[in-house]
Amino acid sequence: MKEKHTVEIIKNKKIAKNTFKMIILAPLVASEAKAGQFLNVFCKRGDLLLPRPISICEIDIKLNTVTLVYAVVGKGTAEFAKMLSGEQIDIMGPLGNGFYIDETNNNHLIIGGGIGVAPLLELVKNLKGNKTVYLGFNTEPYLIDEFNRYADEIRITVENKIETGDGSLETGDGSLSESKDGTEKESLGTVFFGSDNNSGMSQKVPSPMTLKGNVMDLIKENTPKADMIYACGPKPMLEAINGWAEEKEIEAQFSMEERMACGIGACLVCTCKIKKDEDREWQNYRVCKDGPVFYRDEVMWE
Amino acid sequence: MSKCDTRIKIAGVEFKNPVMTASGTFGSGKEYGEYVDINRLGAVVTKGVSSALWKGNDAPRIAETYGGILNSVGLQNPGVEEFIEKDIKFLRQFDTKIIVNIVGRTVEEYCEVARRLSSEDIDLVELNISCPNVKEGGVAFGTDPQMIEYVTKEVKKNLRHPLIVKLSPNVTDIVEMAKAAVDGGADAISMINTLIGMAIDIHKKRPVLANTIGGLSGPAIKPVALRMVYQVAKAIDIPIIGMGGIMSGEDAIGFILAGATAVAIGTANFTNPRATIDVIGGIENYLTENNIKNIQEIRGLAQVK
Description:
The structure holds 2 protein chains of 2 kinds. Chain A is of the alpha/beta class. Chain A has 2 domains: about 5-95, Beta Barrel (Elongation Factor Tu (Ef-tu), domain 3); about 105-255, 3-Layer(aba) Sandwich (Rossmann fold), CATH 3.40.50. Chain A has 6 helices and 15 strands. In chain A, strands 10-9-8-7-11-12-15 form a 7-stranded mixed beta sheet, with helices on both faces. In chain A, strands 1-2-5-4-3-6 form a 6-stranded antiparallel barrel. In chain A, strands 13-14 form a two-stranded antiparallel sheet. In chain A, a hairpin with a 2-residue loop joins β1 and β2 (about 20-25). The longest helix of chain A has 14 residues, at about 235-250. Chain A is globular and about 50 Å long. In chain A, about 45% of the residues are buried. Residues about 165-205 of chain A have low confidence and may be disordered. By secondary structure, chain B is of the alpha/beta class. Chain B has a single domain (about 10-55, about 75-195, about 220-300), classed as Aldolase class I (TIM Barrel), CATH 3.20.20. Chain B has 9 helices and 16 strands. Chain B has an 8-stranded parallel beta sheet. In chain B, a hairpin with a 4-residue loop joins β12 (about 200) and β13. In chain B, α2 packs parallel to α4, α5 crosses α6 (about 220-235) and α7 (about 250-260) packs across α9. The longest helix of chain B has 15 residues, at about 275-290. Chain B is globular, with a radius of gyration of 18 Å. The mean pLDDT of chain B is about 95.
């Protein structure tokens, strides 16, 4: 029988503003989890009744560990952020369905926005073929080195101002950024940094440059080729990707996000409007149990 | 020492223990069945079922508050035919009682579901006239004593099984509502449904729930639920299924001491998927430690004359 169980925190550290990486020793999860699934993580505070659904970022079957990358968005995640290695935490899972990996696809376009990048890392590790990764952040990028290890091409954008090391500030108005000395930074799409997967992963790869804008700017400027898109991030981002993918006739898998309660499909709280059947109208599907990954053409956009 | 007797009876139906699931929190047991042995439960109270498919409200449907949760699911369900085909068939595999929660927009819709269920192999029906998340039916019926009596009477006419009427706490005088259900012919009362509440996202400056308002449940409402069970138990003679924020065996014992015959576990399932089983264990421990042979001995003991 499945159960909520207690695991040990191996590591819990801040990796960006309001963003943390927690590694847990969880053999039961590591042995069955796959990319795109999530865990229910429980709070210690008695007044916080609901588990927090946190997507699985990395799975290490050899070390029996699972990595969770989470944003501090409320009291529960703030509690997680304070926890130390060696402490115990209650979890349940893996929950939900992961991404579907079709071995016949060769060109993969992986797009993440904000904390939505987290479940894509394990996916990128597992995909075979050419992997183009576009990651968009609000202020500060993270997990870049990790993605860079497995991606063939990686491009990063930041939407709002970043405080840079030299004291220059990028504007948040969407215009091309300028540093304090007035030099214009390179425009989108002109930089390309790719890792060479075939030459072995021990080789140090250069970090990609971060550009101003969002992932849609990257897509429009670079018009990447893909047999399948995998995306996770804010709904407006997914909707925009859907529009582009529809035009280009590219299939896409979207990992949807919604506020959850039970996490196992019983309470019908985390619904997403889905149209699976041509003959039937849309229905409210459960993000936790039927998803969180849905094909883009199934999702009803508001 | 011999094991204590936790069996109870409601409307002639015997339950192996007084612990049930609260409607809407447990589906029809399929999902939680991977975490708990359904055979151990006194009863499974299913999610509300209507005559035809209801899509429910838009998301977000949930907000967490201090010691509670607000939901506005809006009684999403596939309709009674699919429910019978899938859910009753599933539940009948287990040695537990089946209580089907029914919903409707009109009295006729409630009666239609009751008629359809009358030919099915279930144990009791729970009349949901207390859901705060639908515009018609639901709480609109459950806050007017004349309407409670009328809808209870009409559904009873169309139903072969015993009927539990689930009361809303969103009323001035809960005893008046309970008496109206008794006058309508209710075989038992379940109480309380959720309290109407809301949460505001101060960053978006908007209500959290897409439906603006929702139903509050969880330990935050337990004192209110307990008070209402206590008052109703004093005033009526039919069995009460008490619920509202029960998280442990001790909480459940409190409701039984207030006068409830049985208890239902709702929100606690989300915090602990084994909450129902843990409550059963907690009740047994309490009875054993206090040398009480039969759970029925303590019902209503906290009532002050």
